[in-house]
Design a protein that fits this description.
Keywords: Hydrolase. Residues 8-227 form the AB hydrolase-1 domain. Belongs to the peptidase S33 family. The chain is of the alpha/beta class and 250 residues long. It has helices at residues 21-24, 28-33, 58-72, 85-96, 114-131, 136-144, 146-161, 164-169, 176-179, 200-206, 222-225, 227-241, and strands at 8-12, 37-40, 78-83, 103-107, 186-191, 210-215. The chain has a domain at 8-112 and 175-241: Rossmann fold, CATH 3.40.50. The chain is built from 12 helices and 6 strands. Helix 6 (136-144) packs antiparallel against helix 7. The radius of gyration is 17 Å and the shape is globular. The two termini are 27 Å apart.
């Protein structure tokens, strides 16, 4: 997607109730219109990618991203954009392959830590349990709309047919001191009402080159609920915001 040459923007989607399609309707068109080469892919277990019964630790997803970029061999600068779990994958990749990236932008995400692994593993296990109830999908449709219900239906094979929840909880996570060595500029975007927004000061103090932006009036789904705003922030960042001293839209 986009014109050949120039910078490459790789979009990494979230886990379970997500796939590459979410980017088609949010920030991908704006990135392509700005002249960037845009790469989207379905992570393992999602969309049209294979769904192995096991192998869902964070390092497996990061390894997939590394293999993808090794195969593509993009020219120009490479930027990673990740939402939710996809942002954690992007940050993990940046820590292990810093010389390959120009910047990272994450939306409603956080670096992998033992607390993160335990929390997300628990969320996935709870979602798997809830989705076994035949009333779950009609409830999602009634309270959140048909789109969320369809996403919930699509996530059932991953949550019920794989060891994803257990694997995420057992993921390899870097020691906190390693994050203080990350040599890649990072912009983190949060919904103003999201619980994760409260972690912004810690993230800025943890990463050597990190800025954060809050989008007021939105929560964890800020990417899909305010796509124009997030796209504007992203395009600004790709243009000059990731360079030292440049302004970032707030």
């Amino acid at each position: 997607m986009g014109r050949p040459g120039g910078d490459t923007v790789v979009l990494v989607h979230g886990i379970a109730m997500d796939n590459l399609a979410s980017y088609y309707f949010t920030v991908a068109p704006a990135c392509a219109a700005a002249g960037h080469q845009v790469v989207m892919y379905d992570q393992r277990g999602h969309g049209r990618s294979e769904r192995p019964a096991s192998g869902y630790r964070l390092e497996d997803f990061t390894g997939d991203l590394a293999a993808l970029l090794d195969g593509l061999r993009p020219s120009g600068d490479v930027h990673l954009v990740g939402t939710s779990f996809g942002g954690t994958v992007a940050l993990d990749y940046a820590l292990h392959h810093p010389g390959r990236l120009a910047s990272v932008l994450v939306v409603e995400s956080e670096p992998p830590t033992p607390a993160w692994a335990e929390k997300l593993g628990g969320i996935l296990a709870d979602a798997a349990r809830r989705l076994r109830d035949e009333r779950a999908l009609p409830w999602l449709a009634e309270h959140y709309g048909g789109h969320e219900a369809r996403l919930g239906r699509r996530s059932c094979p991953l949550l019920h047919g794989t060891t994803a929840a257990e694997d995420i909880a057992a993921s390899r996570v870097p020691a906190e001191d390693r994050w203080r060595t990350l040599d890649v500029p990072v912009l983190a975007v949060y919904g103003g009402t999201s619980d994760l927004a409260e972690t912004a000061p810690h993230l800025e103090s943890l990463l050597p080159d990190c800025r954060t932006v809050r989008v007021d009036g939105y929560g964890h789904s800020v990417l899909v609920e305010a796509p124009r705003t997030v796209a504007g922030i992203l395009v600004d960042w790709l243009g000059s915001g990731h360079r030292a001293g440049a302004a970032v839209r707030t």
